[in-house]
Design brief:
The protein is mainly β. It contains no helices and 22 strands. It is 0% helix and 47% strand. Strands 11, 12, 14, 15, 17, 18 and 19 form a 7-stranded mixed β-sheet that branches. Strands 2, 4, 5, 7, 8 and 9 form a 6-stranded mixed β-sheet that branches. Strand 4 and strand 5 form a beta hairpin. The chain is rod-shaped, with a radius of gyration of 25 Å.
Length: 215
């Protein structure tokens, strides 16, 4: 038996076996101790397994010249991917409210993390940014930034960052740009984790700071 032991999203799994006179495919749900059940209508050499049955263990019984053989049982499942996440680097600082502060003449890099490598699209203020389809976005103005993308293994499995990255313009006296303090802002990087109310800031000497995000 050969075919897709891992499938993408809602796509069916396609399985095949060698040529015989007759076939019957069986499945049992993952984690179930119940006996395997025949799949209705699955009596051909090839099987298109409904994703609604996954994850499941699957095997086939095949008959040749009156003799029936059973294949080994295999697990068929979906790919599992981590949520979309973004690394923030460049010239910036963290405001007292926990936002990403952008000073005049500063540049921020939003870097999409693996495994999201294809069908990339960056979005600002709920509007698609034309031509911004690389894994790194250069940011020079404030706004609410999102990105959608898919893993290379499943190009149709497009996921969106869970919540926008808020970048605010900072013109106050506390604003320190890269031109005012060379090397200071470049020494920072931020990992934005969707669903968390904290961001993690790392300096060039590996000091870590967890900042609670504000409104």
């Amino acid at each position: 038996m050969s075919g897709d032991t891992l499938t993408c999203g809602e796509e069916p799994a396609l399985l095949s076996t060698q040529q015989y006179d007759a076939y019957q495919w069986y499945f049992r749900l993952f984690g179930s101790n119940d006996p395997a059940e025949p799949i209705s209508g699955a009596t051909g050499q090839h099987l298109e397994l409904d994703p609604g049955l996954l994850p499941a263990y699957v095997f086939v019984e095949a008959t040749q010249n009156g003799c029936t053989e059973r294949s080994p049982e295999i697990l068929v499942d979906w790919y599992a991917f981590l949520p979309v996440s973004v690394l923030i680097e460049g010239d910036f600082h963290i405001t007292p409210a926990g936002n990403i502060g952008l000073c005049p003449d500063d540049t921020i890099l939003l870097i999409l993390n693996e495994p999201y490598e294809v069908n990339i699209q960056w979005i600002r203020n709920n509007e698609v940014l034309p031509g911004q389809q690389d894994d790194t976005l250069v940011v020079v103005e404030p706004g609410f930034y999102l990105v959608e993308a898919a893993p290379a293994e499943c190009p149709s499995f497009i996921e969106t960052l869970d919540g926008p990255i808020r970048i605010v313009e900072d013109l106050g006296p506390e604003c320190v740009s890269s031109t005012d303090a060379p090397g200071l802002s470049e020494a920072l990087s931020v990992l934005y984790t969707p669903g968390s109310d904290h961001i993690t800031v790392q300096s060039s000497n590996d000091d870590l700071l967890s900042v609670r995000c504000g409104g």
